[in-house]
Amino acid sequence: MTDQSQDREELQALAGEYVLGLLEDTAAREIERRMAEDAPLRAAVVAWRERFVELDQSAQPVSPSIDLWDRIARDVAGPAASPSKPRQKLWSNLAFWRSAAFAGAAASLVLAAVSIMALQQAPPRPVAVAVLQGDDAVPGAIIEAFADGSVRLVPLRAIDVPPGRALQVWTLWDRARGPVPLGVLARAEQRRLAQDNGLPRPIDQQLYEITLEPANGSPTGRPTGPILYKGLASTAIH
C-alpha cells in the first residue's frame, strides 16, 4: 500500500468514526476544528453522513411502557419463594437460561435477516468523489461518481442562479472527446444525474465542474458560461 493510499484509508476511517460518534469529546472537537480548513476531511465526513442519512431517517423513536421496569424486575426475580421450596438463584435456574438462549438465538436470526435485507437494498457506493471549489477555494459541492458513469451532486452552499439561467454539471474523462454534460438544474439541490448515459467507470483525477448556462443548458454541447465550481475526483478506497 502506498503512503497516499494509507493516508486516504486513515482519513476515511477517522471520518467514519466521527460520524458514528465513536470518538472521545476531545478527538471529536479536533476533527471539527480540522474540517474548517481540511477539504478532503470535510468531504469524507459529508460522504459518511450521506451513507447513514437513510438509516437515521428510518429509525423511529420508541417510548417504553410505564410498567416496563416492573415487568423486567418480576421476570428476573421469578416466582415468589414458597415456605416448602426455596426460590432458585437466577444463575442456577435452568429454565431461565434455556429461555434466554432461545431468545438470544431468535434475536440473532432476526438481526441477520435484517442485515441481509439492508445489504440487498443498500444504494450503490460511489467509486470516486470530487470536492468542487470556486475561485475563493471554498468548497461549493461534492460529486459522488458511480461505476455506471452517473453522479450524485451534493451542494454544500447556496448558488445564486439568475432568472432564465441554470446550473449545468460536466465531466472530462477524455480530452479528445471533450466535456460531457451530466445534467441541468434550475437550482442547487442534491440530485442523481446522468443515469444510463453510457459513460465509462470514473477514474482518478477525472475533472468535474459546474457552469452557469441558459435555462435549457448549453446550446453547443460544450460549456459556454462561467465555471462556478470545479474539482478533480479521487477514487474511493475499498
Key terms:
single chain; 238 residues; alpha+beta; 8-stranded antiparallel beta sheet; 8 strands; elongated
Describe the model.
The chain is α+β, with helices and mostly antiparallel strands and 238 residues long. It is built from five helices and eight strands; from the N terminus they run H-H-H-H-H-E-E-E-E-E-E-E-E. It has helices at residues 3-20, 25-35, 39-58, 68-77, 94-121, and strands at residues 128-133, 139-145, 151-155, 165-172, 180-185, 191-193, 207-214, 227-235. Strands 5-4-7-8-1-2-3-6 form an eight-stranded antiparallel sheet, covered by helices on one side. Helix 1 crosses helix 3. The longest helix has 28 residues, at 94-121. The protein is elongated, with a radius of gyration of 26 Å. Residues 81-88 have low confidence and may be disordered.
What is the topology?
Elements: H1 3-20, H2 25-35, H3 39-58, H4 68-77, H5 94-121, E1 128-133, E2 139-145, E3 151-155, E4 165-172, E5 180-185, E6 191-193, E7 207-214, E8 227-235
Antiparallel strand pairs: 1-2, 1-8, 2-3, 3-6, 4-5, 4-7, 7-8
